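Milestone M4 deliverable, item 7.
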Amino acid sequence: MRKNSILTFLCLASFLVPFMGSAINLSLPQISETFSMKAVSLSWIATSYLIVTAIFQVPFARLGDMFGRKKVFIGGIAIFSLFNLLCGFAPSGDALIVFRGLSGLGSAMMFGTNMAILSSIFPPQERGKAIGINTATVYFALASGPFFGGMLTHYWGWESLFILTGIFGFLVVIGSFVVLKGEWVEAKGERFDYTGSVIYAVGLFGLIYGFSKLPQPFSFVWIAVGIVACILFVYYELRDKQPLFNVRIFSGNKVFGLSNLSALINYACTFAVTYMMSLYLQYIRGFNAQDAGLVLIIQAGIQCVTSLYAGKLSDRINPSMIATTGMGIIVAGLIGLVFLSPETPMPLIMLLLALLGFGFGLFSSPNANIIMSSVDKKFYGQASATMGTMRLVGQSFSMGIAMMATSLHLGNQLIVPELYPLLMKSIQTTFGICAILCIIGTYTSTFRVKKA
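Output delivered:
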């Protein structure tokens, strides 16, 4: 009963972030109208959050190992909920971007510790099932986000979405404080690596920010800074006796490294789908937020059901084979979306979204099971944070692809009917790049099958 109660509140916390991420896509046109935000500026509502979460996830996971994962986890829920409330009262578009970015601090604290807590509670023979339930909750959030987000935006405005999510988050804080009894301290008394944290932050910021600004000339400078900082981070951490992150996990554990690489590529080629499809349905096809949400719910609903059974299945057969099959199915769905047009039949669009949901559901739970089962208990915090960082960096790259395609074809302009053909080109370009990435990811994942 204690394990199930803890899993319940881990799932409730896991529900908050993806729900907000998918629901907000349906409110973007209304936010744009409220603050007169242009196309590229609008995408920074998602990108600011992703950058902050990615930068702070590994440092907060380390703090959780040192001072207690419960403290960091519950503190994260509280911070995420607070800044969501502030988003609901944002006086300008710039303030909304800042508050949304700061909510990423809370998200980093949650996702740097939740999978580590789960893996500490459930033994290996039960872990796949528990991860499957947790992952299914994430996809249920993604599924319900477009529906409830569209409905709330349609009837009560985009502000209601942030306010209600913030209130629900504080209720989860109270419940988690009562249910979580342990602290799960694995590195008590060790020092925190401040130098490594700064180098790590510079590296990730340079890569994500630079990629989001492509093809502008100065973006290549930021990308170069990010690459140099990441190389320096690896060099520094190899020589530190108590590093922020034990990079030897990658060099000495090929399954762990290949699985995280697969996750990075997978999220890079799937996260922008909902964002672009939201713009397509509301601008190109003329759907209101509620109706667009009903279409987008198909993908996440299939993901929810599939990931639940895929997690259970990964306890019995080779999870690498399941995950690789999922990647191949995603390729088929993305290739279909490349040929999207204003006249594409809605049943075909729904079929392609269902195909993407099925493929991603097959991939995610087994891949998470592989990652968490490939390391010793003392590395659960770092493995959880690494997995979350790969997800967020991948999502940031995915949004960078979408922003780059938008900049190339549309520029930073208000989306008006005269520019819809250019928006359509941006959408097709985004899906084309994502399809190519996913083909590469499927190929690299086959090596992981052999290693496993």
